[in-house]
Amino acid sequence: MTQKHDQPGSMSVRESAGLIDVFEIFSLLWKGKWVITLSVVLTTIIGLTYVLLAEEIYRAEAVLVLRQNDQSMAVPNGLGGLANLAGISFGGSSDDSRSLATLRSRAFIEEFLQENMLLPVLFAENWDSAAQNWRSDGTESLQPDIREGVQLFVEQIRLVEEDPVTGLITLSVEWRDPELAAEWVRVLVRRINENIRARDLSESQMRLDYLNAQLSKANLLELRQAISRLIESEIQTIMLAQAESDYAFQVVDPPRVPLRPVSYTHL
Fold this sequence. Notes:
By secondary structure, the chain is α+β, with helices and mostly antiparallel strands. The protein has helices at 13-31, 33-53, 80-85, 96-104, 106-116, 119-122, 146-157, 178-217, 221-243; strands spanning 55-66, 127-128, 133-134, 158-162, 169-175, 249-253, 263-265.
């Protein structure tokens, strides 16, 4: 049975078929050149339109660290047991989890929004800046509830992250205005320190009032002396709290106005 061989210089059936396939592909591409060109143009236009219409979102952040508890060292030696028996707890801002929970809390953000009147900023599309009033859809006011503002701020604008290894805390704010984002971070840091300081001062004053009341009732000299030393310790705690600017959170890296956006969105 003889086998037919291609002559030198001739093209095999397989090569011919491959060449035909390539020609067919180029032919199809040429016929559809306008479709391809139109698709590229439309994609470019859509991309440019999105970039032009979408709002740039900037992120400002500060790196914080919880301060060490200096107040707990102020309790005189040997009086810790007496304080516990009296129902008195020393330590001020040593409750790190409590301070961090306050920073993350919705109640803290609600106070921040109300104090700085930020609902018109967060819901600018519903606010009539000329009339200084909320717009209406014809039947009812478009004024948002404060809970809507808190939800928006907590879920989309503010972020609190803690590094489990270093203990550093990053407080971030993402907003369309870079300067405003940095300012909000600064205000939040200042406000959380004032909030924790006010809480601890209030609790210290309550303990001091309690100790003074117990001192007036004590008859034993040793008990009066012990209570007096606790009073001195509590006064020292109050003095330390009033002297510290970064009371609960110390700023390691302050917020700066961001130069470039981190994302684009339609807020």
